[in-house]
Amino acid sequence: MTDPSSTSNSSAEYRRTRLGQPLLGAFLVAVLLFLAWECVWRARGLRPSVNDDASLWAMHRNRVDEKASSAFVLAGSSRILTDIVPEVLAEETGGACPVQLGIAGAAPWPVLRHFAEATRFRGCIVVDVAPLHAFSLAEDDVAHRRARECLAEFAEQEDTPFWNVERWLQAQAEARLITWLPELSPHTLAAQYARGGYPRKRLWLMTPGRQRWANPDASEEEWEENRLHWQTYYRESYAELYQRGLLPGPAEREALIAQVNEWVRIIQGRGGRVVFVRLPSSGVLRLLERRWFPKSTHWDMLAQTTEARCVHFEDFPEHPLWNCVDDSHLDGPSSVAFTRAFAGLFAGRGVCAVPRD
Fold first, then answer.
1. Does residue 187 carry a pLDDT above 80?
2. Which end of the chain has fewer beta carbons closer than 10 Å to its terminal beta carbon, N or C?
3. At what angle do helices 54-61 and 163-174 cross, to 10 degrees?
4. Distance CA 84, CA 100 (A)
5. Strand spans (E) along 17-167
6. Contact 86/100 with Cβ under 8 angstroms?
7. pLDDT tens, 262-296?
8. pLDDT for position 346
9. Is 7 exposed, middle or buried (0-12, 13-18, 19+ CB in 10 A)?
10. Cα separation of 271 and 286, whole Å?
11. Is 151 exposed, middle or buried (0-12, 13-18, 19+ CB in 10 A)?
12. What is the rounded distance in angstroms from the CA atom of residue 92 to the CA atom of residue 86?
């Protein structure tokens, strides 16, 4: 006589087997399709790159211990994202590794003001002073809006317990998988295909730590095309500043520098340190900077009146050897060389040798 319980168990096991096999097959097919998708785009020259949005900036801003003298921050525009390598700076100075808070295309002053007025920061902050973003009078332009967006994101997420972990995990995935690139989203791909094109390789790649590297796979032709594009942009940007009357006169320049120096005094009055750095530029952009923001009336005026330490890339005898691939940013080897030179200049003066906790 057949045991009813035995028959019931066999039927349940059979149903589980029938259900499990299709699910396993579907999973394997999905994995194979995913791997094929990754391989196709990697074969076309694409590389993984972290999406450098306001949430990534806010995550790194949360890493800064405002009350610690060991806090070490890099701030400014895309030049400091590219030209100073945090790990190399820490290695050369023997101190803490700085938190990278540069913002591509942004003015430096909103972040400096934030650390002066909205925090009790008493560490070291190195600020990239790019003339176009630092000295123009357009406080409502994109350069200031980008900085304010990052600060607003930080204020919104500061008290969210698990948000940092979530964004960190997302950054790790973005750094490893082509699929996370925004240009490979279905909507963006469809729009590009409709225009008869496909995503092009990124010339600049971002790491989870917000270090921006020149893509080693990019050809000389791609870099030259990119350089010509940005030279046109630089000319148009400076022409727009002139036409809108946003190039500072002596009175506006003095008022701006006086305000900046007040923020410096607040930070250094708490025991903190501020370092202003003028990072390398070349070619058409350097000519435009010399014409519209002469060193003698802008950088020198800041350096002569501020209590902050100031470093100009022309202070280094080796500066002609550094390669700005688009007139504004150093390539990978030059970034490492500049960082070592920068660290060496100040290591003996105790400015950037921020102690470890």
1. yes
2. N
3. 120
4. 9
5. 72-76, 99-102, 124-128
6. yes
7. 999 999 999 999 999 999 999 999 999 999 999 99
8. 67
9. exposed
10. 35
11. buried
12. 10
- The helix (run of H) or strand (run of E) holding residue 168 is helix 163-174
Cα of first residue to Cα of last residue in the chain, in angstroms, is: 77
Q: DSSP per residue over 309-339, as a string? A: EEEEGGGSTTGGG--BTTSSSB-HHHHHHHH
93's enclosing H/E stretch is helix 86-93
Confidence of residue 51 (pLDDT cuts 50, 70, 90): very high
Domains of the chain: 55-155+209-347 (3.40.50.1110)
DSSP-derived letter for residue 199 is P
What distance in Å separates the CA atoms of residue 294 and residue 299, rounded to the nearest whole number?
8
Q: What is the pLDDT of residues 219-243, one digit of tens each?
A: 999 999 999 999 999 999 888 888 8
Question: In the chain, which ranges are E strands?
Answer: 72-76, 99-102, 124-128, 204-206, 212-214, 273-278, 309-312
- For 246-266, how does the pLDDT look when each residue is reduced to its tens digit (9 = 90+)? 788 889 899 999 999 999 999
Give pTM, 2 decimals.
0.87
Alpha-carbon gap, residue 38 to 106, rounded angstroms: 33
Q: 273-278 and 124-128: which strand pairing?
A: parallel
Half-sphere exposure of 295 (CA within 13 A, CB side): 13
CA Rg, the chain, in Å?
25
Give the separation between CA 307 and CA 317, rounded to whole angstroms: 25
pLDDT higher at 318 or 168: 168
Pairing of strands 212-214, 309-312: unpaired
Structural element, H or E, at residue 14 = helix 4-43
* pLDDT value, residue 288: 93
Q: What is the DSSP string of 238-251?
A: HHHHHHTT-S--HH
User: Helix-strand-coil percent breakdown of the chain, rounded to 5?
Assistant: 55, 10, 35
What's the Cα-to-Cα distance from 273 to each of 207, 269, 309, rounded to whole Å?
A: 27, 9, 8
The tokens 């022309």 sit on which residue? Answer: 314
What angle, 0 to 180 degrees and rounded to 10, lies between the N-to-C axes of helices 109-117 and 250-269?
40
